[in-house]
Amino acid sequence: MDKYIKFFAAAALIVSVALIVSSCDDDEPKTYTVTFDASGGSPTPTAQTVKSGEKATVPAAQQTPTRDGYTLAGWFDGAAEWDFEANTVTKDVTLVAKWAEITFTVTFEVDGGTTVDPIANVAQGGKIAAPTPPTKEGYEFGGWYKEAALTTAWNFDADVVTANVTLYARWTIAAAVTVSTIAEISGSDIAIDAAGNLYVTGSHRIHKITPEGVVSTFAGTGVSGFADGTAVEAQFYNPRGIAIDAAGNLFVVERNNYRIRKITPEGVVSTLAGDGIQGTRDGAGAQARFNNPHGIAIDAAGNLYVADTWNQRIRMITPEGMVSTIAGGVSVGGFADGVRTTARFFDPEDIAVDAAGNLYVADTQNHRIRKITPEGVVSTLAGSGTRGFVDGVGAAAQFSNPNGIAIDAAGNLYVTSANRIRKITPEGEVSTIAGVEFAGLGGFVFDAEGNLYVLAGIGTLKIVFND
After folding, report:
1. Global confidence as pTM
2. In Å, what is the CA distance from 433 to each residue of 57, 191, 296, 332?
3. Residue 270: which residues within 8 A CB-CB, separation 6 or more?
4. I want to staple 113 with a disulfide (CB 3.0 to 4.6 A). Which of 134, 248, 322, 396 is the partner?
5. Four-residue CA torsion sign, 397, 393, 362, 467
């Protein structure tokens, strides 16, 4: 009997232990797997094992997927966004990445022009179509630029949007002139006679252009050399500046013959000054020497003024051929205002004279416009000395290698610089003549009506100033 009692007691103990163990198993929380679907992004975050009722964790930064052209908008369980701060895991779940396309807005800064609406929702790397150009009274629209400094134009065919961007309108003053080509011939300098005939230096010749645009050779064979004589016998070597007196005589500066030549209205060529040897020497006629001279001007008394470029001097030649130096005294380029020979120039290339006898010099490598009074006082009318393109008054303005200069009846100067024509008032205010921008701008001259004739790479241009 005891034997059976002991057996049943042992069995009961085993059942009790099993029930206790089973009870313990029922108390252990169930675990679930949270997986991630990057939905086209990379990388895919590592799956997480989460106990029932606990929260999944946001994937670590290094496991957060990215996708070109998109930004991660969140993780979703079906249609609902998963809230890692609130949602608990009660089953196996796959969280799917939702992506939002990255878009940008392009705005337009019109600088006083009519409004241009922004272009929104531009995909990353996408292109935009050019909007309708704005308008601005008195100005012409010159395109859209990437910077306020208007340095780089936006190319609507090639440039893509990779961030929010503002494009800036470029404006130029509406053309104040009418430009026409009167002859397909260019050269170094130009002069005009009382009948309206133009004379152009170039190609070892002096060309003549009639008011009707007929071009002929007035003097020179077209072969470089030196010879005085009739128009068909004479030879020139790189003629540069040219001026005309009241009697119709032409005066030509020869760069490589180092001479100043005279041509009568009948075409007879003679040498007024210079012996043909490169150098620096004052004196009468053939006793004088020049060094790469360029520009020339003539005053009411018939005195000639020459920009003796490589001598860094301004020379005067009387009607009788007596040569003297009126400004500049050192044959090395430099800059200094002063009186006569104390002043310094750096490759002056052209010169003009006003009714009062003041001279104006295009001081090319100094990027300045200089003034010389009849008393020989040299000052700077305009230009800071820094090469550039800035309008302004006096030293606030900037020029880039000014190489041509002329004066109108009102005393305004006109200067060629960096393919543009700049205007300088007697007070030194510099502005840019709109509507004229040509390569190779050189010498120019006014006619009796105030029209401007200028040499450019494309030919001889006539510029009429609009009211």
Report:
1. 0.66
2. 69, 21, 24, 33
3. 228, 261, 262
4. 134
5. positive
